[in-house]
Write a structure and sequence with these properties.
heterodimer; B: alpha/beta; 8-stranded mixed beta sheet
């Protein structure tokens, strides 16, 4: 029988790792994910979770140890955030290029300097090209569900998955979370990891290779990553059948007849629903699109969901300096060349923990729709709110 | 000392090392000592390139090529994974060069030693970044030429004492070994393999390309390093019990230096300082190895 518990996002992530019966947890603390590795240490110490815990000396080593464990055929899990994820960058490539089915939770937090502990997605967005699948959670229940779906997909396509949750908005807030029954989880994600390191069938992992073979290996990884979208949908549907909830890559609210669609990745989708309702109250056909999957990028699903809308207003939690909003750029690239002349705006509303306030978003989106966006410069389709004078 | 005939052919033909490579000789002996139930972790370095071009390999055991800094961390995870999968008795051998040990790899190595991970970490020390074309590492001896310590600016700093650093972690076993003394090396590897916890072997492996000596002289150069006490052979149990390995009589460093082009610019003053450094280190080592009163 499933049980309901009041849990924070970090506690939920640890519960998901417990339910997934992970084998090896190499861990290093970093705010605000620390509760995840503390909870797992307690679970393993008390015997609740039968697994090996490795107190590594850095995030770089945490990911390296995950790779070692996965190479032996074990199920590996770790968690990180911001600077820790940035430090891991090199090893993230090794995990994805080495096709290791690792699942990692990242608590989305701003990068320094200046030091800022609050929510910002520039940490994980900067890891787009490492080959990891990336999922952005809406709430604590989504943290639990997506981690379990992630193991199913990771082990099916042999690629690592990063589950992102907004710092503090999700890591430190409690919600009622439904924890599924262990037996049902076991049936949903039986372990299926092939050991790379096998003394009976010795082979090499990752040693030097020439340009042609390298290109072919990259081709395979790319198309397997593209195909992972279908795997995710399949796994999400199977999860819905077993547990009554799904983790769709794209989720919409009142988009059917929308002229303006607010787009966001992460936990702000709730706030944006309110903004949509306020815009509708003022007579504007607004909708919301929550982008849960950034790699692989669900371009076709977005195009279908966008329908005949005139504009997208992307509420950004990450900036690519010298270019613009990161999610906005992704959307522009994915929707380029499609008929309809869609206008795509980046609205920087959630950097460094800045609160995404429904009233402000609604007002800005209506101003954009009326052709009068605020701010001194908006020729690059970027709107910055709340700047200090 | 005589060499026992090799009976296992875990390292087959087809490696891509330079002629006379000390690190290639070393792996053959290491695998003879460890046997086929061994899993190897190799970071960037000479060995990461001369295993063979994928999917070929000169090693008949599984090998992971990993990020430069991560040898000991990957080995830690691999060992934990093997234990979880019921293969805990298999050996995990981390095999890194001096760059991957003394420099970029030292943090992960220190972490693994502090946790006392059940791995064997061998540093095959050729005293520079040889794979990228002979650049200085912190294992490069003073007075040596490399492409980043050219004749106009020879290396002036002393070499890190890696075994002392590892012994200070209190690891159950740390030792030095040389490709010129294969029986000693193999015995130390076998001993390391019989002990649980972190084992560290600092292996002196000559490099004809970087050291500028004939490829036929690799073993002789390595032997002279031992005879001149540039690279003494010893072991340390639990960080406390220091023991000298049986070694030949002492000779001055001049012949060892003269055999190698990398020292040809050092001059008599630097050579005298080099000799004094060797004598100081030896005295310190002898004190540690002397039975306590």
């Amino acid at each position: 029988m499933s049980t309901n518990k009041l849990l924070t996002g970090t506690e939920t992530a640890a519960q998901a790792a417990l339910l997934a019966r992970v084998d090896v947890v190499p861990a290093y603390p970093i705010t605000p994910q620390t509760v995840i590795v503390e909870t797992l240490a307690e679970m393993i110490g008390s015997g609740e979770l039968d697994a090996a815990y490795i107190n590594v000396e850095s995030e770089h080593s945490a990911m390296a140890s995950c790779i070692g464990a996965a190479a032996a055929g074990a199920r590996a899990f770790t968690a990180t955030s911001s600077q820790g994820l940035a430090l891991m960058h090199e090893v993230l490539h090794y995990a994805a290029n080495g096709r290791m089915p690792i699942v990692m939770v990242n608590a989305n937090r701003a990068l320094a300097p200046p030091w800022n502990l609050y929510c910002d997605q520039s940490d994980s967005l900067a890891q787009r090209d490492t080959g990891w699948l990336q999922y952005y959670c809406a709430d604590c229940q989504d943290v639990l569900d997506s981690i379990l779906v992630a193991y199913k997909v990771a082990e099916e396509v042999s690629l690592p998955v990063m589950i992102n949750l907004d710092a503090f908005y999700l890591t430190h807030t409690s919600e009622a979370v439904e924890l599924p029954d262990q037996e049902a989880v076991d049936a949903f994600i039986p372990k299926q990891i092939k050991a790379v390191m096998d003394t009976e069938h010795p082979a090499t992992y990752g040693n030097v290779c020439g340009p042609e073979l390298y290109t072919s290996i990259r081709y395979n990884r790319h198309y397997d990553a593209v195909g992972a979208l279908e795997s995710w949908q399949r796994a999400s549907q199977a999860y819905a059948q077993a547990f009554g909830r799904s983790c769709p890559p794209v989720q919409t609210y009142k988009t059917e007849d929308a002229e303006t669609i607010l787009v966001v990745a992460g936990s702000a989708s709730g706030a944006l629903r309110l903004a949509v309702d306020q815009m509708r109250e003022q007579g504007h056909a607004a909708g919301m699109l929550r982008l849960a999957m950034l790699r692989p990028f669900p371009g076709e699903m977005i195009a279908r969901a966008v329908g005949g809308a005139k504009r997208l207003v992307v509420v950004e939690r990450g900036v690519s300096s010298g270019m613009g909003g990161i999610v906005g750029q992704e959307l522009k690239a994915a929707l380029f060349g499609r008929p309809g002349g869609l206008d795509i705006w980046s609205l920087f509303a959630g950097l460094g923990g800045k609160d995404i306030v429904p009233e402000e978003i609604a007002a800005e989106a209506l101003a954009i729709a009326a052709g009068k966006p605020s701010g001194p410069e908006h020729g690059d389709h970027c709107i910055w709110t709340g700047l200090l004078p | 000392m005589t060499n026992t005939a090799l009976t296992q052919d875990i390292m087959g033909p087809g490696h891509l090392a330079c002629a006379g490579c000390g690190a290639a000789i070393a792996m053959r002996h290491a695998m003879e000592a460890l046997g086929p139930k061994t899993n190897i972790v190799v970071p960037a370095g000479c060995w990461s390139t001369f295993i063979g071009v994928y999917p070929n390999s000169c090693l008949r055991v599984p090998v992971m090529s990993v990020a430069f800094a991560t040898t000991a961390a990957t080995a830690s995870g691999l060992k934990a994974g093997l234990e979880r999968m019921g293969r805990g008795e298999e050996t995990v051998l981390a095999w890194a060069g001096d760059g991957g040990t003394f420099d970029i790899g030292i943090q992960a190595l220190s972490g693994a030693a502090e946790r006392n991970e059940d791995i064997i970490f061998v540093c095959y020390d050729n005293e520079a970044y040889m794979n990228t074309g002979i650049q200085r590492s912190s294992a490069t001896p003073p007075g040596a030429w490399t492409t980043t310590t050219p004749e106009s600016a020879l290396k002036s700093q002393r070499k890190k004492n890696m075994v002392a650093i590892m012994a200070a972690h209190g690891v159950p076993y740390a030792a030095t070994a040389s490709i010129a003394y294969p029986e000693d090396f193999m015995a130390k590897m076998a001993k390391a393999n019989s002990i649980r916890g972190t084992k560290f072997i600092h292996l002196f492996a000559s490099c004809p390309t970087g050291w500028r000596h004939g490829s036929e002289l690799s073993v002789e150069v390595a032997a002279r390093a031992v005879k001149s006490r540039v690279f003494p052979l010893y072991e340390v149990m639990d960080g406390e019990e220091w023991r000298m390995s049986p070694m030949p009589a002492k000779e001055p460093v001049s012949e060892y230096l003269r055999m190698q082009g990398r020292f040809k610019a050092m001059g008599p003053e630097i050579e005298a300082e080099f000799q004094r450094g060797v004598d100081r280190s030896w005295k310190s080592l002898a004190r540690k190895c002397a039975p306590s009163a």
